[in-house]
Amino acid sequence: MPCLLKPSPSLAPRQLGLGFLLACAVLVGCGGGKGGDSSSGGGGGVTEFSSSPTLSGVAAVGAPLMNARVAVVDGSGASLGSTTTRAPDGSYSLTLSSKSLTAPLLVQVSGLDAAGNPQVLHSAVPILAASTPAMVAHVSPLSNAVVALALGADPQPVFAAAKSNGPALAAAATAASAAGEFVKTLVKPQLTDLKFSNPTALSLLADPAFAANKGAHDLLIESLRVSLVKNSKGVMQLLLSNKLVPSQATEVVVELPTAQTELLKTSSPTPANAITSTLKATTSPTATLANLAALDDLSAALNKLIAQGASAATIGSHALLAGYDTHNGRLKAALATKLADYVAKNRQFGRWQITGCADDTVSGGLCKRVLVAAPISDVSGAVVDTFSDAVSYTKTSTTGSVWNLIGNGKKLALAVYPLAFQALAADGTSSTALTPNPVGGLQIAVQTLLDGSTTPLLTQATVQTPSGFSIPFANCGQAQLCISSTAGATSVVPTGGLVDTALLRSSVGWIGADDLLLNAKYLATYSLSGTAESRAIYLPAEVPAELPAARFPTLDGVSSSAPLRGGQLLVGLTINWAAWAAANPDLRLISVRTVLNVPADPTQAPLITDTAPPLPPSTTLALAGISVPDAFVASNYELWLGAQDAAGRRFYTRYTLTP
Q: Distance from CA of residue 106 to its chain's centroid?
């Protein structure tokens, strides 16, 4: 029968949810059951449904997660089925495969966000009731935070081994309600700015009004940067911050194990004890939040232009682009050409996702150039591209959207990434050519070529590390400048390998501990058209301390009996990475490169071929054959694979092929 216990009105909101769950756990038949089994927030009880139960919800990171995979398990670890989210709105609906369920239900969604970053997020249904077969579980970075706090751990490995994690799931069900209340205290400024009149009534797991439509709940998600990381002591942490500030600085740090211990207390839980940061709540982009509800009108206006068959000239002169200057060197004409290509291919914009702020400084919570991304889909709803730019707000705009494209105002792109690198032999075994293998480090990207151009924007630059050392860069004929061993050089010969752009800890003595931390500040100095510029670059995540082999991208079918051979690159080769992709849904393959070189002659530039891998879920790529000049006699063949996670951490694998 349904749980008839009434919670005491004297309990505080966080204690009320926890106390109610614990009390329900001891009542025989609470929530309905068979043979006296209970179904409660404490987990472990079996609920028998008279009809097939269903689960529905919305998966979003602000913008909906389109065509993402949804999988569900119950508290016993039993798989209850899977489905995919709908392309327009990220919603899903699933009839569960069993009528006998053990609380709680744990939901995992894996897919790409609007910026093309891989996301693996979780949600839960902590309490089951036979009288409520239609259940709701929304999936977002905040629901993932709730589940992580309730588990005291990263949900992804728990979900992967759900059958052996019954006690952990039961504890998570007990702590889930209090965890949700705790998360809301961490983002109180956003809740205030978004005018939630009764935040205690907001469910981060099952809000009946939630949709990925730039409403209040959706904008709460949009305004936050939320991640789970393991610190240098091996403790899992929840990190939260205001997304619309220039740096990547974490504002609130919560240690998950300590938080869960507090949340499970039967009286006077104080999860705030788990906060190790000075700030106890995130800051909020107050002024910007007030205008973001209308952001998706820009997609509608651009899609109207596309549907009307607008030419590049028409698009370039349209008011939607009137204030556009440049975005990482891309001028308005190049943007208009790109949009005209969408017209020719009948592609449309999805909903926008906020990715950051392009302003150097922000005052009063007002970001004037909001960084955004949108998925580009074909008529079938398949995402075939992602679009990134910056937008600005104009209250008096008459374009059909008060948000219009403006660009980030930067003349070139700069970035620094934490990376890990492993070297493999042709048969897939670890190579002895790299010591240690694998190794961690940093990759610095200083753009010099625009898309389709062979004229460099600049020929040299320096990048200063947080430790105070400066690294010289020079033009090497590639899209990014290469690290130079000669100070002041304007040109170098590339190797085609990571040493062109990466500082590996095993070979560069100028890399210290401060250089490897989240939000470490690097300073790039260069000259464009005779004008000197300096720009800060922030490290988006810590350099991985642990380098498990399973994280590095590998190819299917490579073995001692089937090694990779250089001759295969010459005639063309189809590669497949399905097994690695299935084991690492939070990583996406972002680069494939072949390098043919002559190690005996370092003055001889290698033959470098980059091929863009397809967006997931595709895991195969046909590499075209390589045309080798008569005078070029390669003696070394390499195949490079690069992958990246949502935080910007990169994992590279180099295969050295046999001739």
A: 21
